Structure to design on (171 residues):
């Protein structure tokens, strides 16, 4: 290849890559009107700074527009099924749970255990090795969704549920 061919190819490559460099440069010099979205935490921090300015006699409640919600209200709106008073574990029995998920379904105390978990295949007979209390007469332990569930054999209703982590409990 001749020297002029190399120069021609180099010029074409540089000419083709010019728009790439100019668009990257333009992205760095973004219009100040276009900004990244502000997160709720940033907005709360900014609101706190505004509320604590000296000479502010109206207080924080006056700065919040009507219809605006506080952080905890916004969180409860995002999770409509959850209460602000979540079930705190009992210190006496930290493994006991009130609700759990298994087979894409939510179960609570009083829910009915599906038939497949009432079979001998799922029945837990070595409850002592798994740190579970002995089941009463007419009840049985089963394993559902990573949790141990005590249910009534007659009607299949859940009496008690323990987190699967109880297996690792140190006595």
């Amino acid at each position: 290849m001749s020297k002029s061919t190399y120069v021609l190819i180099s010029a074409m490559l540089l000419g083709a890559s010019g728009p790439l460099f100019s668009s990257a440069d333009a992205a760095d010099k973004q219009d100040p009107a276009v900004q990244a979205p502000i997160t709720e935490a940033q907005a709360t921090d900014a609101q706190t700074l505004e509320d604590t300015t000296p000479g502010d006699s109206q207080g924080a409640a006056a700065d919040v527009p009507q219809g605006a919600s506080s952080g905890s209200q916004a969180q409860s709106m995002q999770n409509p099924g959850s209460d602000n008073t979540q079930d705190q574990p009992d210190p006496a029995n930290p493994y006991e749970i009130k609700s759990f998920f298994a087979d894409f379904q939510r179960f609570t105390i009083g829910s009915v255990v599906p038939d497949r978990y009432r079979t001998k295949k799922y029945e837990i007979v070595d409850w002592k090795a798994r740190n579970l209390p002995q089941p009463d007469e007419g009840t049985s332990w089963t394993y559902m969704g990573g949790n141990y569930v005590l249910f009534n054999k007659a009607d299949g209703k859940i009496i008690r549920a323990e987190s699967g982590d109880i297996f690792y409990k140190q006595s």
